[in-house]
Amino acid sequence: MKKMWLGLVTVSVLLATACGGGGGGGESTSGGPSGSAGGGPVEIVFWHGNSGQAGLECTKLVKQWNAANPDIQVKPVFYGSSDRALTKVETAVASGTYPDIAYLYGSWAANIATSPALLPLNDYIQNDPTFNWDDFWPAERYAATVDGKIIGIPALVDNLAIVYNPALFDAAGIQYPTPEWTWDDFRAAAKAMTDPANQQFGWAYPADASEDTVWHWEAMLWEAGGDILNADNTQAVFNSPQGVQALTVLQDMATVDHSIYIDTTNTKIGDVFNGGKIGMLVTGPWDLQGFKNVDYGVQIMPSFDDPSNHQTISGPDNWVLFNNGPERAQAAFEFIKWYTEPDQDIQNALYTATLPIRQSELDVAGYQTFLDKYPGIQTFVENEQNALKARPVTPKYPMVSEALGQAIVSVLLGKADAQTALDQAAQAANAALAAP
Amino acid sequence: MEATGRRRAPLWRRIVGSDNVAGWSLAGPAIFMMALFSIYPVVWSVILSLERKNLLTGETQWVGWANYKALANDAIFKTALWNSAKYTALFVPISIVAGIFVAVAVNRKLRLMAFYRLAVFVTLAISTISTAIMFMWLADPDYGLINAFLHALHLPEQGFLRDTNEALYVIVAMTVWGWLGFVVIIYLAALQGIPQELIEAAQIDGASRWGTFRNVTLPLLGPATFFLVVWLTINALHLFDEIYLTTKGGPLYSTTVLVYYLFVQAFQNFAAGYGAAMAYVLFGIILVISIIEFMVGKRLVHYSA
């Protein structure tokens, strides 16, 4: 008798979980309820990777919106690290239940543009007279556009500049970096500050062959006058004399002067700089908050032969919208428009030290507080004007980047000279570009 | 007299009340989950490996054996195969030898033995990310403790994870350390299961300590060793976390192992079909090695004293 009851109970529990699992599972993976057909508020799902303080700020803004807009309710979902976000979106799209908005890195723009679930924004932006698309920085607009299709709204922008430790400059008796600096000046200063006995280096370079390794060098390539790919993204052109000139700087500093701390794990540079052992970094505004022990200074990138060419590279990321029907799409667009307006973005920036994503943000009330709060950040804001070029927008870019990453690391480790390494990388990149 | 014999219960009662139903309904959910999350993907990835598929667009093209053929011409894949082989050939024997050594060392009655055992087992409790960060700093060529030590002894300093010839060995050291607690636990349990009278008999017969260990203890550790060799081999061929957290396959592919390369292809270059083909090659390798291990094990391992 007891056994029979056990059987009955388990069967009913099984049925209950099967129904619950089937019905609820689909919804919980999508992150929330779908848009209501008849009446009631439209609910949209908003995937972001903001943790800690940034996460709190993000949720605060969403609450603010939800309170003011009873008919469009936004459900924020923290998806973990942004590094893996594309995989998560990929999976969600494959399963047929996906968010309305997701934060995605700019380097994935060409990949996400191929997704049938993507919501192109050209019409939404065109039909909204108050949107003002041109208010976003040029590099942001470029990175959000794939073959004329606007695939997202800029979510974050940054760029690279020199962040230096004045104490090491003083100790070596040399002048701080100036806006007129050339790469020769940079190299000489790094050499002067290098002291092997004290494990002190002039510069540190991330050498894990990732995109982080590559984009540092790409800025130098552009400054030297070179380009990554040809105009229609079918052929590698980075193994030009300009490319060799840019990579030779790394080669000389790493293998002749030994003035670079080469971190092949790309995990330790920030700590070592903060520990006062590195003279200069080339890095972005996101690192500044971590440098609590260094009274750092910030200067724009050095130039090559053309003294006016102080370019940088900008890494804009996007809020990408997905199509869950016209009602939810319109709601998602309205929310993200509001979320990226200067008044809201400056609130975010105040706590996360991110650069203003709209040019008009420099005029809003909170901007001065933002500059005062983060020393050196103004140089990064102004440096956005030097972001004249952008990485090629092609789904093959990850492969091009991988080839370049290996080339740069092999030069840093003294395994190949600049020309040979770049020629080999060009061969690998061309093979990837030619493949279907 | 009425007919004896119990009235049979109605059919539905018999079904609901039977052992089979109770058993299956208890095991059912787990089996269902297994089928959903392991058997289905296993079958699906066979199909995937014969396609060129972009997970993002859902674009699918049947390519037959093309992915497997491309693997044969992929120089990085060959490097990854070689690195995995080298890693496994080092990791498994070193773990076994170190595990036996430490297990024997802590299988004694000494003061503070509980503390020593804890010190060994603590590697089990430490997460991979902590182990990785610790080793990255210890083995840093410029700021690491190991090189500072070598420097103090006037020995040549090493490049470690910056040196293409050394990086894989650092990974071996890191993972042997990380797995040591597990290996020691298994061996310690096996050691404590050895009947004391066998050891005593050998000693009475005049066997030396080494002789006792070599001819009594070691053969009786056979089943544990067999289990560990199979288990550690499979794990070694699955090496991923430590690579992902430290070298990302570098420098210059010197630590690119099979699963890491699979990950790069499937999730960074979006070649899901190619990645699936690689997974099946790996499956074949593990299958063959495990069969060989079982065949050898059958001949060498004694299950009773």
Portion in strands of chain A = 5-15%
Unreliable stretches of chain A (pLDDT < 50, length at least 5) are 1-37
Rounded to an integer in angstroms, the radius of gyration calculated over CA atoms of chain B is 26 Å
Helix content estimate of chain A: 40-55%
Structural category of chain A: alpha/beta
Query: What is the H/E order of chain B?
Result: HHEEHHHHHHHHHHHH
The termini of chain A sit apart by: 66 Å
Output the keywords.
heterodimer; A: 436 residues; alpha/beta; D-Maltodextrin-Binding Protein, domain 2; 2 domains; five-stranded mixed β-sheet; 17 helices; globular; disordered N terminus; B: 305 residues; mainly alpha; two-stranded antiparallel sheet
Describe the structure.
The complex is a heterodimer of chains A (436) and B (305). Chain A is an alpha/beta fold and 436 residues long. Chain A has helices spanning 2-30, 52-68, 85-95, 109-112, 122-126, 138-143, 166-172, 183-193, 211-223, 241-257, 269-274, 326-339, 342-352, 367-373, 377-383, 397-412, 418-434, and strands at 42-48, 72-78, 101-104, 145-146, 149-150, 153-156, 161-164, 201-206, 260-263, 278-283, 297-299, 317-321. Chain A contains 17 helices and twelve strands. In chain A, the strands form three sheets. Chain A has a five-stranded mixed beta sheet with strand order 2-1-3-12-6, sandwiched between helices. A five-stranded mixed beta sheet of chain A has the order 9-8-10-7-11. In chain A, strands 4-5 form a two-stranded antiparallel sheet. In chain A, helix 9 packs across helix 10, helix 9 (211-223) crosses helix 16 and helix 16 (397-412) runs antiparallel to helix 17 (418-434). The termini of chain A are far apart. Residues 1-37 of chain A have low confidence and may be disordered. Chain B is mainly α. Chain B has a two-stranded antiparallel ribbon with strand order 1-2. The A-B interface holds A 3-4, 6-8, 10-11, 14, 17, 86-87, 89-91, 93-94, 111-112, 114-116, 199, 201, 207-210, 261-262, 264-268, 272, 277, 395, 398-399, 402, 406, 409-410, 413, 415, 436 and B 13, 16-19, 21-22, 25-26, 28-29, 52, 54-59, 133, 136-137, 140, 142-143, 161-162, 164, 167, 246-253, 264, 267-270.
